[in-house]
Specification:
single chain; alpha+beta; five-stranded antiparallel β-sheet; 5 strands; 37% strand; globular
């Protein structure tokens, strides 16, 4: 999985890199967030390990933008763990909804 390509895409889609200073996400996790509704955020959490790259996508409610990376979300509405290219392929497939 090409995390560099994903990070570049996130930056072009107005995602902001959030400091990971809390205990909810693993140490070294890169967090990218974008507000999609009032205090509802789409997050991509990228974990880089020696053996595996793991991406988590979630939609969650935080009390404010600055609490991302510090506190647990008040509510998680969607969660997806992407661990290999096949998972990423399915994620991209479901994002492409045909126009009707």
């Amino acid at each position: 999985m090409d995390c560099q390509k994903i990070v570049k895409t996130l930056k072009h889609k107005d995602f902001v890199k959030v400091p990971n200073k809390g205990n909810w996400f693993e140490d070294g996790a890169a967090i990218y967030a974008k507000e999609i509704n009032d205090n509802i955020f789409l997050l991509f959490v990228i974990l880089k390990d020696i053996e595996i790259e793991n991406i988590r996508a979630l939609i969650a409610h935080f009390d404010c933008f600055s609490s991302i990376g510090l506190k647990e979300p008040e509510q998680i509405m969607f969660y997806l763990s992407i661990k290999d290219k096949e998972d990423l392929h399915y994620f991209e497939k479901y994002l492409k909804v045909p126009d009707n």
